């Protein structure tokens, strides 16, 4: 479901117009502590990547600012729910494919869907491995070969791509803790530094409280 924004009563209208004209996007990068998350997924013999995708998508779906978009009529609004579209790397070809999975707030349910999609489409060497994706998806990817301190992805579409772009990096150990870089890129028309910080901080909180949701059914 797509909810159209009443632009006449929208508190952000002036900000939206200003930053839309500037076509202004920005990115923020932070190191997320995944010490406990990595430990718990390993103990359960679970893959880490689905958990990272889940955390990003869960926070995106908790705030309408991260679900802002245009519909096919060019009307501004926000999606009721967004599903993650993530990349799967093909080592031999050195290419990747995009796969999307229906989001669920229940991690075990999402994890099973993710793993099934990986089996069904993971070896399809094409850009959109699962076929034509739905309109209500948001991008999440990982660059597991390097621990970056900043990441920026430029999209030349007249500044109309409003969804956040979430990119994970290679995790690393520092003292007794494990961290992973996380970059989020947003459009300033719909998100400010406050919202980008909210996304990063809430993902960190999910990683800290992973025991609350890893086994919840």
UniProtKB/TrEMBL annotation:
Cited Gene3D superfamilies: Chloramphenicol acetyltransferase-like domain
GO biological process: response to antibiotic
Enzyme Commission code: 2.3.1.28
A molecular function (GO) term: chloramphenicol O-acetyltransferase activity
Reaction catalysis annotation: chloramphenicol + acetyl-CoA = chloramphenicol 3-acetate + CoA
Entry-linked InterPro entries: CAT-like_dom_sf, Chloramphenicol_AcTrfase_AS, Cmp_AcTrfase
UniProt cross-references to Pfam families, sorted A to Z: CAT
Catalytic residues of the enzyme: 188 (proton acceptor)
EC primary class: transferase
Keywords on record: Acyltransferase, Antibiotic resistance, Transferase
Primary role: This enzyme is an effector of chloramphenicol resistance in bacteria.
Family matches, as PANTHER family: CHLORAMPHENICOL ACETYLTRANSFERASE (PTHR38474:SF2), SLR0299 PROTEIN (PTHR38474)
NCBIfam families: chloram_CatA
Family the entry assigns: Belongs to the chloramphenicol acetyltransferase family.
Subunit annotation: Homotrimer.
Name of the protein this chain belongs to: Chloramphenicol acetyltransferase
UniProt lineage: Bacteria, Bacillati, Bacillota, Bacilli, Bacillales
């Amino acid at each position: 479901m797509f909810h159209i924004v009443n632009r006449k009563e929208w508190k952000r209208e002036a900000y939206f117009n200003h930053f839309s004209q500037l076509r202004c996007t920005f990115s923020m990068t932070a190191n997320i502590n995944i010490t406990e998350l990595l430990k718990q997924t390993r103990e359960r013999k679970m893959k880490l990547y689905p958990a990272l995708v889940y955390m990003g998508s869960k926070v995106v779906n908790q705030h309408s600012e991260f679900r802002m978009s245009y519909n096919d009529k060019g009307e501004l609004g926000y999606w009721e729910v967004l599903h993650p579209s993530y990349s799967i790397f093909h080592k031999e070809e050195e290419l990747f494919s995009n796969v999307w999975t229906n989001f669920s707030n229940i991690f075990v349910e999402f994890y099973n869907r993710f793993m099934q999609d990986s089996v069904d489409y993971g070896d399809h060497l094409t850009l959109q491995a699962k076929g034509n994706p739905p309109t209500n998806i948001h991008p999440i990817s990982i660059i597991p070969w390097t621990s970056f301190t900043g990441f920026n992805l430029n999209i030349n579409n007249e500044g109309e791509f409003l969804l956040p772009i979430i990119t994970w990096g290679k995790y690393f150990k520092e003292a007794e803790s494990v961290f992973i870089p996380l970059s989020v890129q947003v459009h300033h028309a719909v998100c400010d530094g406050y919202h980008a910080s909210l996304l990063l901080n809430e993902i960190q909180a999910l990683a800290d409280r992973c025991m609350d949701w890893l086994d919840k059914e």
